[in-house]
Specification:
Layout: E1 4-7, H1 19-25, H2 31-44, E2 49-51, H3 53-60, H4 64-76, E3 80-84, E4 90-95, H5 103-118, H6 142-149, H7 152-165, H8 171-182, H9 188-200, H10 206-218, H11 224-244, H12 254-266, H13 271-285, H14 290-302, H15 308-329, H16 353-361
Parallel strand pairs: 1-4
Antiparallel strand pairs: 1-2, 3-4
Helix pairs in contact: 2-4, 3-4, 4-5, 7-9, 8-10, 9-10, 11-13, 13-14
Protein name: DNA replication protein DnaD
Organism: Blautia argi
Family: Belongs to the DnaB/DnaD family.
Length: 363
Protein backbone atom coordinates (compact mmCIF):
# COMPACT_ATOMS: atom_id res chain seq x y z
CA UNK A 1 0.00 0.00 0.00
CA UNK A 2 1.20 3.49 -0.73
CA UNK A 3 0.63 6.90 0.73
CA UNK A 4 -2.76 8.01 2.00
CA UNK A 5 -4.17 11.42 2.90
CA UNK A 6 -5.68 12.51 6.19
CA UNK A 7 -8.66 14.86 5.88
CA UNK A 8 -9.07 17.28 8.79
CA UNK A 9 -12.32 17.38 10.80
CA UNK A 10 -11.50 20.93 11.97
CA UNK A 11 -8.91 23.65 11.38
CA UNK A 12 -6.46 25.04 13.89
CA UNK A 13 -3.12 24.42 15.56
CA UNK A 14 -4.55 22.30 18.40
CA UNK A 15 -5.61 18.68 18.53
CA UNK A 16 -9.18 18.39 19.84
CA UNK A 17 -10.38 15.02 21.11
CA UNK A 18 -14.07 14.27 21.23
CA UNK A 19 -15.51 13.57 24.69
CA UNK A 20 -17.62 10.89 23.02
CA UNK A 21 -14.44 9.15 21.91
CA UNK A 22 -12.96 9.38 25.40
CA UNK A 23 -16.15 8.17 27.11
CA UNK A 24 -17.40 5.45 24.77
CA UNK A 25 -14.70 4.37 22.30
CA UNK A 26 -11.36 4.63 24.09
CA UNK A 27 -12.03 2.50 27.23
CA UNK A 28 -12.65 -0.74 25.31
CA UNK A 29 -10.03 -0.19 22.58
CA UNK A 30 -6.53 -1.57 22.55
CA UNK A 31 -3.88 0.89 23.71
CA UNK A 32 -1.94 0.64 20.44
CA UNK A 33 -5.08 1.44 18.45
CA UNK A 34 -5.78 4.49 20.61
CA UNK A 35 -2.21 5.71 20.16
CA UNK A 36 -2.44 5.37 16.37
CA UNK A 37 -5.82 7.14 16.29
CA UNK A 38 -4.43 10.07 18.29
CA UNK A 39 -1.40 10.28 16.00
CA UNK A 40 -3.65 10.49 12.93
CA UNK A 41 -5.85 13.05 14.64
CA UNK A 42 -2.86 15.20 15.52
CA UNK A 43 -1.67 15.31 11.89
CA UNK A 44 -5.18 15.93 10.62
CA UNK A 45 -5.42 19.03 12.80
CA UNK A 46 -2.71 20.64 10.63
CA UNK A 47 -4.77 20.36 7.47
CA UNK A 48 -4.79 17.70 4.77
CA UNK A 49 -1.67 15.66 5.44
CA UNK A 50 -0.01 12.76 3.61
CA UNK A 51 1.27 9.79 5.61
CA UNK A 52 2.25 6.20 4.93
CA UNK A 53 2.31 3.04 7.01
CA UNK A 54 6.10 3.10 7.39
CA UNK A 55 6.24 6.68 8.72
CA UNK A 56 3.48 6.05 11.26
CA UNK A 57 5.10 2.80 12.43
CA UNK A 58 8.50 4.46 12.79
CA UNK A 59 7.09 7.40 14.73
CA UNK A 60 5.21 5.21 17.21
CA UNK A 61 7.74 2.37 17.55
CA UNK A 62 5.25 -0.14 16.21
CA UNK A 63 4.95 -2.26 13.08
CA UNK A 64 3.07 -1.54 9.88
CA UNK A 65 0.81 -4.48 10.75
CA UNK A 66 -0.23 -2.61 13.90
CA UNK A 67 -1.16 0.43 11.83
CA UNK A 68 -3.24 -1.60 9.38
CA UNK A 69 -5.01 -3.47 12.19
CA UNK A 70 -5.80 -0.17 13.94
CA UNK A 71 -7.29 1.33 10.78
CA UNK A 72 -9.48 -1.75 10.27
CA UNK A 73 -10.61 -1.60 13.89
CA UNK A 74 -11.56 2.10 13.85
CA UNK A 75 -13.30 1.74 10.50
CA UNK A 76 -15.51 -1.07 11.81
CA UNK A 77 -16.15 0.96 14.97
CA UNK A 78 -17.43 3.84 12.82
CA UNK A 79 -14.68 6.21 13.93
CA UNK A 80 -12.76 6.41 10.63
CA UNK A 81 -13.76 6.22 6.99
CA UNK A 82 -11.22 4.61 4.66
CA UNK A 83 -11.07 5.43 0.95
CA UNK A 84 -9.71 2.79 -1.43
CA UNK A 85 -8.92 2.97 -5.13
CA UNK A 86 -9.94 0.39 -7.75
CA UNK A 87 -6.95 -1.78 -6.79
CA UNK A 88 -7.94 -1.82 -3.12
CA UNK A 89 -5.08 0.49 -2.11
CA UNK A 90 -5.73 2.88 0.76
CA UNK A 91 -5.80 6.47 -0.52
CA UNK A 92 -7.54 8.46 2.19
CA UNK A 93 -8.60 8.48 5.83
CA UNK A 94 -11.32 10.77 7.15
CA UNK A 95 -12.87 11.15 10.60
CA UNK A 96 -16.53 10.20 11.06
CA UNK A 97 -18.88 11.96 13.49
CA UNK A 98 -18.95 10.05 16.77
CA UNK A 99 -22.17 8.94 18.44
CA UNK A 100 -22.69 7.84 22.06
CA UNK A 101 -23.62 4.25 22.80
CA UNK A 102 -21.13 2.55 20.50
CA UNK A 103 -21.09 -0.88 22.21
CA UNK A 104 -22.43 -2.85 19.24
CA UNK A 105 -20.17 -1.22 16.70
CA UNK A 106 -17.14 -1.79 18.93
CA UNK A 107 -18.01 -5.47 19.27
CA UNK A 108 -18.21 -5.69 15.48
CA UNK A 109 -14.86 -3.95 15.20
CA UNK A 110 -13.17 -6.40 17.54
CA UNK A 111 -14.62 -9.42 15.75
CA UNK A 112 -13.77 -7.98 12.32
CA UNK A 113 -10.14 -7.39 13.24
CA UNK A 114 -9.87 -10.82 14.82
CA UNK A 115 -11.38 -12.55 11.79
CA UNK A 116 -9.15 -10.57 9.44
CA UNK A 117 -6.10 -11.72 11.39
CA UNK A 118 -7.29 -15.30 11.26
CA UNK A 119 -7.61 -15.13 7.46
CA UNK A 120 -4.05 -13.92 6.90
CA UNK A 121 -2.26 -16.55 4.79
CA UNK A 122 0.62 -18.54 6.24
CA UNK A 123 3.67 -18.04 4.04
CA UNK A 124 5.53 -21.17 5.27
CA UNK A 125 4.48 -24.38 7.02
CA UNK A 126 6.62 -23.34 10.00
CA UNK A 127 5.03 -23.55 13.42
CA UNK A 128 4.53 -19.99 14.57
CA UNK A 129 3.84 -18.48 17.94
CA UNK A 130 0.25 -17.26 17.89
CA UNK A 131 0.59 -13.68 19.10
CA UNK A 132 -1.11 -10.39 18.55
CA UNK A 133 1.50 -7.67 18.17
CA UNK A 134 -0.79 -5.19 19.79
CA UNK A 135 -1.84 -7.40 22.70
CA UNK A 136 -0.91 -6.34 26.20
CA UNK A 137 2.14 -8.00 27.72
CA UNK A 138 1.03 -10.39 30.47
CA UNK A 139 2.55 -9.69 33.86
CA UNK A 140 4.89 -12.34 35.25
CA UNK A 141 4.35 -13.50 38.78
CA UNK A 142 7.17 -12.82 41.26
CA UNK A 143 7.85 -16.57 41.54
CA UNK A 144 8.03 -16.92 37.77
CA UNK A 145 10.43 -13.98 37.44
CA UNK A 146 12.66 -15.33 40.16
CA UNK A 147 12.67 -18.77 38.59
CA UNK A 148 13.74 -17.31 35.22
CA UNK A 149 16.44 -15.13 36.77
CA UNK A 150 17.95 -18.18 38.42
CA UNK A 151 18.68 -19.73 35.04
CA UNK A 152 22.21 -19.24 33.74
CA UNK A 153 20.93 -18.61 30.20
CA UNK A 154 18.60 -15.84 31.36
CA UNK A 155 21.27 -14.19 33.48
CA UNK A 156 23.52 -14.18 30.41
CA UNK A 157 20.77 -12.53 28.32
CA UNK A 158 20.24 -9.80 30.92
CA UNK A 159 23.99 -9.18 31.18
CA UNK A 160 24.37 -8.92 27.38
CA UNK A 161 21.39 -6.56 27.24
CA UNK A 162 23.04 -4.18 29.70
CA UNK A 163 26.24 -4.25 27.65
CA UNK A 164 24.44 -3.43 24.38
CA UNK A 165 22.14 -0.81 25.88
CA UNK A 166 24.84 0.75 28.03
CA UNK A 167 22.70 1.02 31.14
CA UNK A 168 21.36 -0.91 34.11
CA UNK A 169 18.10 -2.61 33.18
CA UNK A 170 14.97 -1.34 34.88
CA UNK A 171 12.32 -3.70 36.21
CA UNK A 172 10.20 -2.98 33.12
CA UNK A 173 13.12 -3.72 30.80
CA UNK A 174 13.72 -7.05 32.53
CA UNK A 175 10.05 -8.01 32.29
CA UNK A 176 10.04 -7.28 28.56
CA UNK A 177 13.12 -9.41 27.93
CA UNK A 178 11.77 -12.23 30.10
CA UNK A 179 8.48 -12.04 28.21
CA UNK A 180 10.24 -12.38 24.85
CA UNK A 181 12.25 -15.31 26.17
CA UNK A 182 9.58 -17.22 28.07
CA UNK A 183 6.27 -16.34 26.36
CA UNK A 184 7.36 -15.56 22.80
CA UNK A 185 9.97 -18.35 22.93
CA UNK A 186 12.91 -16.48 21.44
CA UNK A 187 15.97 -18.53 22.32
CA UNK A 188 19.09 -17.03 23.93
CA UNK A 189 21.07 -16.76 20.69
CA UNK A 190 18.18 -15.08 18.91
CA UNK A 191 17.68 -12.69 21.84
CA UNK A 192 21.34 -11.68 21.66
CA UNK A 193 21.11 -11.04 17.92
CA UNK A 194 17.86 -9.12 18.44
CA UNK A 195 19.65 -6.73 20.81
CA UNK A 196 22.63 -6.42 18.48
CA UNK A 197 20.41 -5.73 15.47
CA UNK A 198 18.21 -3.09 17.14
CA UNK A 199 21.19 -1.21 18.60
CA UNK A 200 22.94 -1.29 15.20
CA UNK A 201 19.82 0.34 13.74
CA UNK A 202 20.26 3.20 16.20
CA UNK A 203 17.37 2.28 18.50
CA UNK A 204 17.90 1.14 22.09
CA UNK A 205 14.23 1.59 22.95
CA UNK A 206 12.85 -1.48 24.70
CA UNK A 207 9.50 -0.88 22.97
CA UNK A 208 11.24 -1.11 19.59
CA UNK A 209 13.14 -4.25 20.65
CA UNK A 210 9.87 -5.84 21.71
CA UNK A 211 8.19 -4.96 18.43
CA UNK A 212 10.97 -6.43 16.33
CA UNK A 213 11.00 -9.58 18.46
CA UNK A 214 7.24 -10.04 18.08
CA UNK A 215 7.47 -9.42 14.35
CA UNK A 216 10.15 -12.11 14.02
CA UNK A 217 7.97 -14.53 15.97
CA UNK A 218 5.00 -13.85 13.68
CA UNK A 219 7.23 -14.49 10.64
CA UNK A 220 8.27 -17.85 12.06
CA UNK A 221 11.88 -16.77 12.66
CA UNK A 222 13.39 -19.07 15.27
CA UNK A 223 17.12 -19.02 14.51
CA UNK A 224 19.81 -16.38 14.12
CA UNK A 225 20.38 -17.56 10.54
CA UNK A 226 16.75 -16.88 9.62
CA UNK A 227 16.87 -13.46 11.28
CA UNK A 228 20.07 -12.56 9.43
CA UNK A 229 18.56 -13.63 6.12
CA UNK A 230 15.59 -11.36 6.78
CA UNK A 231 17.69 -8.35 7.80
CA UNK A 232 20.46 -8.91 5.24
CA UNK A 233 17.94 -8.97 2.42
CA UNK A 234 17.05 -5.37 3.22
CA UNK A 235 20.68 -4.45 3.77
CA UNK A 236 21.60 -5.77 0.32
CA UNK A 237 18.76 -3.77 -1.19
CA UNK A 238 19.89 -0.64 0.64
CA UNK A 239 23.45 -0.87 -0.66
CA UNK A 240 22.22 -1.60 -4.21
CA UNK A 241 20.22 1.63 -4.13
CA UNK A 242 23.14 3.57 -2.66
CA UNK A 243 25.37 2.34 -5.50
CA UNK A 244 22.75 3.48 -8.01
CA UNK A 245 23.18 6.97 -6.52
CA UNK A 246 26.95 6.63 -6.75
CA UNK A 247 27.30 6.39 -2.96
CA UNK A 248 29.97 3.97 -1.73
CA UNK A 249 31.86 3.09 1.44
CA UNK A 250 29.24 4.21 3.95
CA UNK A 251 26.06 2.93 5.58
CA UNK A 252 22.68 4.47 4.76
CA UNK A 253 21.36 7.25 7.01
CA UNK A 254 18.08 6.85 8.91
CA UNK A 255 16.24 9.26 6.61
CA UNK A 256 17.58 7.42 3.55
CA UNK A 257 16.38 4.12 5.01
CA UNK A 258 12.91 5.61 5.46
CA UNK A 259 12.83 6.59 1.80
CA UNK A 260 14.10 3.20 0.66
CA UNK A 261 11.57 1.33 2.81
CA UNK A 262 8.84 3.46 1.26
CA UNK A 263 10.00 2.61 -2.27
CA UNK A 264 10.47 -1.09 -1.58
CA UNK A 265 7.54 -1.80 0.73
CA UNK A 266 4.82 0.77 0.10
CA UNK A 267 5.35 1.45 -3.59
CA UNK A 268 6.46 -2.14 -4.18
CA UNK A 269 9.03 -1.19 -6.83
CA UNK A 270 11.77 -3.52 -8.02
CA UNK A 271 15.41 -2.56 -7.64
CA UNK A 272 15.61 -2.00 -11.41
CA UNK A 273 12.89 0.67 -11.31
CA UNK A 274 14.37 2.34 -8.22
CA UNK A 275 17.84 2.34 -9.83
CA UNK A 276 16.41 3.99 -12.94
CA UNK A 277 14.93 6.77 -10.79
CA UNK A 278 18.29 7.18 -9.01
CA UNK A 279 20.12 7.53 -12.33
CA UNK A 280 17.66 10.15 -13.55
CA UNK A 281 18.02 12.01 -10.27
CA UNK A 282 21.80 12.24 -10.56
CA UNK A 283 21.56 13.34 -14.21
CA UNK A 284 18.99 16.03 -13.38
CA UNK A 285 20.46 17.38 -10.13
CA UNK A 286 24.09 16.32 -10.22
CA UNK A 287 23.79 14.79 -6.73
CA UNK A 288 22.19 11.94 -4.79
CA UNK A 289 18.92 13.61 -3.83
CA UNK A 290 16.58 11.11 -2.16
CA UNK A 291 13.74 13.63 -2.10
CA UNK A 292 14.04 14.24 -5.86
CA UNK A 293 14.13 10.49 -6.53
CA UNK A 294 11.06 10.09 -4.31
CA UNK A 295 9.15 12.63 -6.41
CA UNK A 296 9.95 10.56 -9.52
CA UNK A 297 8.96 7.27 -7.91
CA UNK A 298 5.80 8.73 -6.38
CA UNK A 299 4.77 9.95 -9.84
CA UNK A 300 5.44 6.52 -11.34
CA UNK A 301 3.51 4.86 -8.52
CA UNK A 302 0.47 7.06 -9.15
CA UNK A 303 0.68 6.27 -12.87
CA UNK A 304 0.69 2.53 -12.26
CA UNK A 305 4.28 1.69 -13.22
CA UNK A 306 5.20 -1.95 -12.60
CA UNK A 307 7.93 -2.64 -15.18
CA UNK A 308 10.70 -0.75 -16.96
CA UNK A 309 8.62 -0.99 -20.14
CA UNK A 310 5.93 1.10 -18.43
CA UNK A 311 8.51 3.85 -17.92
CA UNK A 312 9.46 3.69 -21.62
CA UNK A 313 5.79 4.16 -22.52
CA UNK A 314 5.49 7.15 -20.21
CA UNK A 315 8.66 8.67 -21.71
CA UNK A 316 7.32 8.21 -25.25
CA UNK A 317 4.00 9.77 -24.34
CA UNK A 318 5.80 12.70 -22.68
CA UNK A 319 8.01 13.40 -25.71
CA UNK A 320 5.03 13.19 -28.07
CA UNK A 321 3.09 15.73 -26.02
CA UNK A 322 6.15 17.96 -25.78
CA UNK A 323 6.65 17.85 -29.57
CA UNK A 324 2.99 18.70 -30.11
CA UNK A 325 3.27 21.74 -27.83
CA UNK A 326 6.39 22.95 -29.63
CA UNK A 327 4.64 22.60 -32.96
CA UNK A 328 1.66 24.62 -31.73
CA UNK A 329 3.94 27.35 -30.35
CA UNK A 330 5.96 27.76 -33.59
CA UNK A 331 4.75 30.95 -35.43
CA UNK A 332 3.43 30.39 -38.93
CA UNK A 333 5.39 31.93 -41.85
CA UNK A 334 3.72 34.85 -43.60
CA UNK A 335 2.45 34.10 -47.07
CA UNK A 336 4.25 35.99 -49.86
CA UNK A 337 2.49 39.14 -51.11
CA UNK A 338 0.14 38.41 -53.96
CA UNK A 339 0.84 39.99 -57.32
CA UNK A 340 -1.91 42.29 -58.55
CA UNK A 341 -2.21 45.41 -60.70
CA UNK A 342 -0.95 47.61 -57.88
CA UNK A 343 2.27 45.83 -57.10
CA UNK A 344 2.86 43.79 -60.23
CA UNK A 345 5.61 46.16 -61.47
CA UNK A 346 9.12 47.10 -60.42
CA UNK A 347 9.04 49.28 -57.33
CA UNK A 348 11.38 52.30 -57.23
CA UNK A 349 13.43 52.88 -54.17
CA UNK A 350 14.36 56.49 -53.28
CA UNK A 351 17.18 56.41 -50.81
CA UNK A 352 17.37 60.18 -50.18
CA UNK A 353 15.31 63.28 -50.78
CA UNK A 354 18.19 65.28 -52.43
CA UNK A 355 18.38 62.83 -55.31
CA UNK A 356 14.64 62.97 -55.78
CA UNK A 357 14.66 66.82 -55.82
CA UNK A 358 17.44 66.90 -58.48
CA UNK A 359 15.46 64.61 -60.71
CA UNK A 360 12.33 66.75 -60.42
CA UNK A 361 14.12 70.10 -61.13
CA UNK A 362 15.91 68.67 -64.16
CA UNK A 363 12.66 67.97 -65.94
Amino acid sequence: MGQFEIYPPFPGAYTFISNTFLDYYMPSANGEFVKIYLYLLRHASCGKHTLNFASVADALNCTETDVQRALRYWEKAGVLKLSLNSLGTLTGVSFAPLLPGADSSLECAVSAVSSADAKEPQQQPVQKTELSLSSAQPALTPDKKQDLKNRDEVRQILFIAEQYLGKTLSATDMETLLYLYDEVHLNADLMEYLLEYCVSKGSSSMAYIKKVGLAWAEQGITTVTQAKEETNLYNRNYFTILRAFGIKNRNPLDKEIQYMNLWLNQYGFTLEIISEACSRTVLATGKASFSYADSILESWFKQGVHHLSDIDSLDLNFHQKKAAKVKEATPKQKAPASKNRFNNFHQRNYNNMAELETQLLGK
